[in-house]
Amino acid sequence: MMTFLPVLVMLVLMALNTHVAFAIGIAALTFFFTAQGVPQEIFIQRMVSVTQSFPILAVPLFILAGILMNHSGMTRRMMALADSLVGHMVGGLAQVNVILSVLMGGMSGSSNADAAMQAKILVPEMEAKGYGRAFSGAVTATSSVIAPIIPPGIGMVIYGFLADVSIGRLFLGGVIPGLLMGAALMVVVTLVSRRRGYLPAREAPATARERGAALWSSLWALGLPVGIIGGIRFGILTPTEAGAIAVIYALFVGFVVYREMKLADLPAILSDATLSTAVIMLIICAAQAFGFYMSWERIPTIAGQALLSFTENPVLLLLAINLFLVLVGMLVEGTAALIILTPLLAPLAASVGIDPVHFGIVMVVNLTIAAVTPPVGTLIYTTSTIIRCDIGSFVRESLPLLAALFAVLLLISLFPAIVLFLPNLLMS
Predict the structure, then answer these.
(1) Tens digit of each residue's pLDDT, the chain (428 residues)
(2) Contacts of 411 (CB under 8 A, 6+ apart)
(3) Cβ-count burial of 130 within 10 angstroms (0-12 exposed, 13-18 middle, 19+ buried)?
(4) Nearest CA to 204 among 83, 99, 123?
(5) Neighbouring C-beta atoms of residue 379, cutoff 10 Å
(6) Domain presence at residue 24
(7) Helix or strand or coil: residue 422?
(8) Is the previous residue joined to 400 through a cis bond, with omega within 30 degrees of 0?
(9) pTM recorded for the entire structure
(10) ω into residue 152 within 30 of 0, thus cis?
(11) Is residue 46 part of a domain?
(12) Using the 8-state DSSP alphabet, how is residue 154 labeled?
């Protein structure tokens, strides 16, 4: 019983709505207070040691880059491009919402940042055009799940660091699944919009000239993910260096190219980036101490043996892990679950021959979708709070959109080639 006491403490604290980082940290501290022969000083050492990692420095850099891009004028130009591409379709503004998330995925890398931005900008406009508030919020939240999947995704940086997997291959592996998620959501939006009579945002498709102008205006933004992946692919940049270049690039575009960013904006930008980084890094630090407890008590080995006793078939094992992650994601915040479970599940997947890049993308997609599943889904609360919508209506409207996302998750789980095609093609 004492072996699993920290796990029990963590679950109880999370059930009591304790902040995730504190729940994990207190649970880890429980182990150091009760274990025999383990110096308590190691708790602090483990928490601090992870902050000295060069690869993990990519996390705050990509967070800062994403926030800078939202202030630089790139978002508005991306929205104009999305409108020119799909604004003429049934449910035009909802389609624009989805496409904007696909385009923003190569910029922000954060689902919460994407959801907050679109909830403030697009949802009021959708309501004015007759869309239901709950449906508008559901489209915003579910489509923002795409942002961490299309590179550069913060979840992939964390998984790559913890599982010692190429972050460049992970970035490439997320491209096709992210596009499939966007396409699946657009199909659902079309079906719902036809049934409810949601009209196109524009009377006729944009002309080639209009689309060309929108594309030209967005080139600076669209060039960022290409530059990041290209730099990593050709060995010019490490992921951390790519994050630093992204920050410099966003500053250059905001101040020099678009000239929409002012020096007076920087304190608020840096404050926002610091707070967002602190939340994630505190979870990572606490989880590092929790990971020491799991290693000491051989919990990954015990869990691995239990799962392998169920099946050693890679496909069945991956489906079982998916089901487990869905259940965990409903109760534990996605980033925290990723940090805690990667050291436990990645070696297990590798032991039965599952490609680590394929498994990483499946795991990140699964736990990112968890952000829009009740009762803990952070995107539910982020979006519904901003648009002032009750949770029950929001969840009901999300169900068909969630079904589309889970269908894509099942597809990429069963067919690894969907994930591995681009990494094998471009980084072999």
Answers:
(1) 567 788 888 878 877 878 778 888 898 899 888 888 788 888 888 888 877 777 777 778 877 887 787 788 777 787 788 888 887 888 888 888 888 888 776 565 567 767 777 777 778 888 888 888 889 889 988 998 888 888 777 788 889 988 889 888 998 999 999 999 999 999 999 999 888 888 777 778 888 898 898 888 888 877 777 777 777 767 787 778 888 888 898 899 889 888 888 889 899 989 988 887 887 788 778 877 887 887 787 776 777 777 777 777 888 889 988 988 888 777 676 777 888 888 888 988 888 889 999 999 999 999 888 888 876 677 777 788 778 888 788 888 999 999 999 999 999 999 999 999 999 887 66
(2) 180, 418
(3) exposed
(4) 83
(5) 27
(6) no
(7) helix
(8) no
(9) 0.80
(10) yes
(11) no
(12) H
Q: How far is Cα 131 from Cα 108, in angstroms, rounded to an integer?
A: 26
| Residue 136 lies inside a defined structural domain of this protein | yes
Q: Please, which residues have CB within 8 angstroms of residue 267's CB and are 6 or more apart in sequence? A: none
pLDDT tens digits along 57-66:
777 887 788 7
Q: Are 10 and 27 in contact (CB under 8 A)?
A: yes
DSSP secondary structure letters along 98-126: HHHHHHHHTTT--HHHHHHHHHHHHHHHH
Q: Is the dihedral of CA 138, 341, 183, 93 positive or negative?
A: positive
Q: Which of these, 393, 369, 402, lies nearest to 137 by C-alpha position? A: 393
36 belongs to a structural domain: no
Please name the residues in contact with 213: beta carbons below 8 A apart, sequence gap of 6 or more. none
Cα distance between residue 45 and residue 254, in whole Å = 40
Strands, E assignment, 117-208 = none
Count of structural domains within the chain: 1
303-317 as b/e: b if 16+ CB within 10 A? bbeebeeeeeebeeb
Q: How far apart are CA 340 and CA 288, in angstroms?
A: 8
Residues ≥6 apart with Cβ < 8 Å to 117? 70, 75, 104, 108
What span, in angstroms and rounded, lies between the C-alpha atoms of 221 and 227?
10
Tokens for 47?
């928490």
Cβ–Cβ < 8 Å for 149, 174: yes
The whole-angstrom separation of Cα 340 and Cα 360 is 14
- Its domain, for residue 166, covers 53-426
Tokens of 273: 């980036």
Specify whether the CB–CB gap between 231 and 171 falls below 8 A: no
Q: Is the dihedral of CA 45, 50, 54, 57 positive or negative?
A: negative
Contact in structure between 391 and 380 (CB atoms under 8 Å): yes
